């Protein structure tokens, strides 16, 4: 089978009369992969039933289980069923030698087992040409989980709320998309909290999104950004100090600044934008190296920003 996009799972799986021997879910959107793991498990139960499921469903995490244990499970016959389901999460945790053993198994998989593999990884030509991926694609299914484009995230958020009868206007969904985290897993956490917050009327407003956001002190960060936008640099510096004193993560502040620059790019001269981005990248690199200069580095950036726009 060719490599399929994750959106094709529903159309593909509904025709399964028997689960494939191997299914690989790979990509960056771990939250979607987890949802689809549940869907595939439900499909397994629909086809084979749920009797003595405890003997026919094995779940392993590569971070804590030896590869030989996984392969032993795959080669063990199901109990009272024609097929068993073996789930292996986080293949990326395995060493190259352990992955080679999985690849060897995938070359001649057991007909009485479905091995469902979840692999969190960036999608690129190197991964697509990986011998393990090629081996699985000839024997089973490989589903690709691309990171959701920014313009697709608000509709996805709206659809998630609608599943339980909640409504969120596009503007509120867009705010949640921009500020609620990088991954769909982050966004799902925010969605669950907002469902509790807006339980009574099931209407999720922009105000509710701002209040319930799990960026613990994001209101202060929004005030910091607002001060930069209004060119009140003294206030921006004071709020920055307060954020750091309260334990705000410097990397999160850099994330907010990067978002701010992207939104403001059309209002800046290209050379100014490049200078500010270079300085922000430098701050990020020094912080990741463990430099204990959070306040100084970020205050330098604010100072550079204020001078650049005069």
Task: Kindly describe this structure.
By secondary structure, the chain is an alpha/beta fold. The chain has 3 domains: 3-145, 3-Layer(aba) Sandwich (Rossmann fold), CATH 3.40.50; 150-212, Helicase, Ruva Protein, domain 3; 218-308. It is 57% helix and 11% strand. Strands 1-6-2-5-4-3 form a 6-stranded parallel β-sheet, sandwiched between helices. The longest helix is centred in the first third of the chain and has 19 residues, at 30-48. The mean pLDDT is 87.
Question: What's a quick, concise take on this entry?
Answer:
The chain is of the alpha/beta class. The chain has helices spanning 9-13, 30-48, 53-56, 67-75, 96-107, 125-128, 131-139, 153-162, 170-179, 184-197, 206-212, 218-229, 233-245, 250-264, 270-288, 294-308, and strands at residues 3-5, 22-27, 57-61, 84-89, 113-120, 141-145. It has a 6-stranded parallel beta sheet with strand order 1-6-2-5-4-3, sandwiched between helices.
Show the helix and strand layout:
Blueprint lengths: L2 E3 L3 H5 L8 E6 L2 H19 L4 H4 E5 L5 H9 L8 E6 L6 H12 L5 E8 L4 H4 L2 H9 L1 E5 L7 H10 L7 H10 L4 H14 L8 H7 L5 H12 L3 H13 L4 H15 L5 H19 L5 H15 L2
Parallel strand pairs: 1-6, 2-5, 2-6, 3-4, 4-5
Helix pairs in contact: 5-7, 8-9, 8-10, 9-11, 12-13, 13-16, 14-15, 15-16
Using brief descriptors, characterize the structure shown.
310 residues, alpha/beta, Rossmann fold, Helicase, Ruva Protein, domain 3, six-stranded parallel β-sheet, 16 helices, 57% helix, 11% strand, elongated
């Amino acid at each position: 089978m060719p490599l399929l996009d994750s959106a094709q799972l529903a159309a593909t799986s509904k025709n399964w009369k028997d689960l494939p021997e191997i299914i690989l879910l790979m990509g960056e959107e771990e939250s979607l992969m987890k949802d689809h793991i549940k869907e595939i498990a439900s499909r397994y139960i629909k086809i084979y039933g749920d009797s003595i499921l405890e003997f026919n469903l094995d779940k392993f995490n590569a971070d804590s289980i030896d590869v030989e244990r996984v392969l032993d499970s795959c080669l063990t016959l199901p109990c009272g069923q024609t097929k068993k389901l073996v789930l292996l999460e986080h293949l990326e945790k395995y060493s190259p030698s352990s992955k080679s053993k999985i690849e060897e198994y995938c070359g001649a998989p057991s007909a009485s087992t479905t091995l469902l593999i979840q692999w969190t990884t960036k999608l690129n030509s190197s991964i697509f040409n990986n011998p393990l991926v090629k081996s699985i694609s000839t024997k089973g299914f490989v589903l690709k989980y691309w990171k959701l484009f920014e313009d697709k995230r608000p509709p996805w958020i709206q659809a998630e709320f609608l599943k339980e009868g909640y409504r969120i206007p596009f503007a509120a969904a867009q705010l949640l998309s921009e500020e609620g985290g990088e991954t769909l897993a982050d966004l799902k956490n925010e969605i669950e909290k907002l469902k509790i917050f807006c339980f009574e009327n099931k209407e999720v407003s922009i105000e509710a999104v701002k209040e319930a956001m799990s960026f613990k002190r994001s209101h202060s960060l929004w005030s910091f950004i607002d001060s930069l936008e209004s060119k009140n640099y003294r206030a921006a510096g004071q709020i920055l100090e307060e954020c750091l004193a309260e334990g705000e993560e410097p990397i999160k502040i850099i994330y907010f600044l990067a978002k701010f620059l992207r939104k403001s790019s059309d209002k800046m001269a290209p050379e100014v934008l490049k200078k500010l981005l270079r300085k922000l990248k430098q701050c990020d690199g020094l912080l990741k190296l463990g430099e204990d200069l959070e306040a100084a580095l970020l205050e330098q950036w604010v100072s550079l920003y204020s001078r650049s726009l005069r």
